[in-house]
Amino acid sequence: MAVYKELSPSLRTIMTPGPVEVDPRVLRAMSFPVLGQFDPEFTSLMNETMAMLRELYMTNNVWSYPVDGTSRSGIEAVLVSLIQPGDKVLVPVYGRFGYLLVEISERCGAEVVLVETEWGRAFDPEELIQAIHLHKPKLVAMVHGETSTGQMQPLADVGKVCRELDILLVVDAVATIGGTPVETDAWYLDAVIGGTQKCLSVPSGMAPLTYNRRVEQQLISRKTIERGLRDSDCARAGERTIASNYLDLSQLQDYWGPARLNHHTEATSMLYGLYEGLRIVLLEGLEARYLRHRINEQALMAGIEGMGLALYGDLSSKLPVVSCIKIPQGIDGERVRRMLLHDFGIEIASSFGPLKGKIWRIGTMGFSCQRRNVLHVLGALEAVLRRHGYNVSAGEAVQAALDVYAGKEKEGVLC
Amino acid sequence: MAVYKELSPSLRTIMTPGPVEVDPRVLRAMSFPVLGQFDPEFTSLMNETMAMLRELYMTNNVWSYPVDGTSRSGIEAVLVSLIQPGDKVLVPVYGRFGYLLVEISERCGAEVVLVETEWGRAFDPEELIQAIHLHKPKLVAMVHGETSTGQMQPLADVGKVCRELDILLVVDAVATIGGTPVETDAWYLDAVIGGTQKCLSVPSGMAPLTYNRRVEQQLISRKTIERGLRDSDCARAGERTIASNYLDLSQLQDYWGPARLNHHTEATSMLYGLYEGLRIVLLEGLEARYLRHRINEQALMAGIEGMGLALYGDLSSKLPVVSCIKIPQGIDGERVRRMLLHDFGIEIASSFGPLKGKIWRIGTMGFSCQRRNVLHVLGALEAVLRRHGYNVSAGEAVQAALDVYAGKEKEGVLC
């Protein structure tokens, strides 16, 4: 037998668009001994988690619970539970994760209408409203915060139009939840999927989501109960049956609801982590948390520009928790990233598809979104760029960021 | 805002068929700070996890990795990645979890042939071989250890026949992996799915699996690459495309393999837990671990019979990690379970469907499978039964179990 090393991960400053650093209180929570899944203490924790998710998602939706899988499991759960083969689904795409919505919808058998805008901007809501009127889909699926391009799509107008036309609006808020407002009810969002490993600063592995009565009605009309659990032998899988068992929200809500119908075995330790992560978010307060994210973003941007680098993309629709930086001519972006990790223990991200090798992406998310991290990454990036022969204004980046923090303190804003 | 309580779960003695108690070393591992998903340190951990899974599954299969979801996500991943609509799938059922295989296969569009035997026994391999010859399915899906009835299906003969007839054999080893031998290669199993929260004693939330070249060939023939990641815009989802993105093994193996193609964000802390859990299993040694499970099972059974209770099911095919006990006439099984939990902090399980209210199920799995737990549950069950007016031979249960341990020690067997 080979001998396997004791686990001993290095400490990192993680400034990517996720996974990001985890609050030590969340890590501690994940190390608590487990409870059984139907232990009354555990089902209480499930209920309290649902209550906290409602606050986070700014919603009165009964159904607000995590799917046991990474973020895209939650996206797929919503889409596979709503889409029937042949349904028309409109997906406006402004980056990589829009394509993921296309891909999942296609696999669910949807007739997908893809509307694209160039990468680096969001849609003008009017463009979207026109497309919705033109195509009259059953469902619109959209990304709220597109980490691949650092852009954020305003959703309130789109939501209103979808509601008026009785179209379902499904939103991927994986990157935004907990870092910038996601107003489920006020924006008329029918289903919203969040991520744990970004602004919530809980490890990857759960996909908290919420959906309203309009979605629930669709689910109920497609519901079957597992043969091993149902009393009679009537319902078999039929034409309208949801194609997945694991991601069937009609079954999941019977597990999370008072029926407590056995489905999977809830991921205990991940739930402990999510519970504690949500508690920390609500203790900080949503408004204070969003403000913290905005201030650190401003400091980071000031530092990036202060050292003479250029930001990528339309700043008027910038995603506040991800900043994209154009890699200067003649610089090998991957070598810079490797040196940041190797010498400074800092991770920043590259990007995908057409942006591969052209931009770096720096996240300011959750627990990673703090002053010492912003200052550390600016100082380190400057040093690495100089080491690669790029002529930066030495020392200016950190000073520019410090100016932002000092200015906020003068205004009496804590961050 | 409501005030949410600090997390503070009670300590439990968990003697169910899962989730069971977690080794403190695994809990500690889950509290380590996270690494980024493409951090070289993290991808090394992924590779080492795969190597350990190969040892656990007794296989040379390249592909041995976890799906990020609970056990049934792994089962569905294998089935949805292999089954195309209209494929004939044979599912021999001897308990509830066989029905789950039927349900998932139906949702994948399979033409399912269900062969059943009464609950409380396993199939004679000859019955299965005849059914396979009769129906000539593309795929046979079977449960190895059926926790709902406490039965285990011998698989070696079935595997050999399937291989001869070029039929794929998919095995749910969720309950058995790490507690009793699962010989993937020697038994000719094509794909095997394990569970974390049972004999591996890692929290629920991952589904480690393994599959061979025969399975891989099928996957490759159905593979597509996400639009956001592929270079050209050729392949769209087609007829043969795997219906799920999240559970698409052809994409997952490109993430776990040297291509490292981005799919989901690996569940870092769960992987830490699995890594440490596997390391602990291999440090103990598979043979020693199986023996420990056998001895504690024997002690438990001796105790149960010692207090005058009867075991349920065919003992010749008994699942060694779950013991089913007939609830005596006149005893309310749920009241007994509630008192065990409330007064003794012990959890044992009820059962499903036709066995609901008729049997209790006691697991002896992983870290929970230890002498002090077996003695504790026997003493407590006796006390609770007496409290409910059932006439047990007082004190005999624990003595009978101690006799088993003493006998083993005399033979020089450590446990």
Question: Top keywords for this entry?
Answer:
homodimer; seven-stranded mixed sheet; two-stranded parallel ribbon; alpha/beta; 415 residues; Aspartate Aminotransferase, domain 2; globular; Aspartate Aminotransferase, domain 1
Folded structure, characterized:
- The structure is a homodimer of 415-residue chains.
- The first copy, chain A, is of the alpha/beta class.
- The first copy, chain A, folds into two domains: 23-281, Type I PLP-dependent aspartate aminotransferase-like (Major domain) (Aspartate Aminotransferase, domain 2), CATH 3.40.640; 285-410, Aspartate Aminotransferase, domain 1 (Alpha-Beta Complex), CATH 3.90.1150.
- Chain A has helices spanning 24-30, 40-56, 71-82, 96-107, 125-135, 156-164, 213-221, 249-256, 268-284, 286-306, 333-344, 371-387, 396-410, and strands at 13-14, 63-67, 88-93, 111-116, 139-143, 145-146, 151-152, 168-173, 191-194, 207-211, 322-326, 346-347, 359-363.
- In chain A, the strands form four sheets. In chain A, strands 2-10-9-8-5-3-4 form a seven-stranded mixed β-sheet, sandwiched between helices. A two-stranded parallel sheet of chain A has the order 1-12. A two-stranded antiparallel sheet of chain A has the order 6-7.
- In chain A, β3 (88-93), α4 (96-107) and β4 form a beta-alpha-beta unit.
- The N and C termini of chain A lie far apart (52 Å).
- At the A-B interface, α1, α2, α3, α4 and α9 of A face α1, α2, α3, α4 and α9 of B.
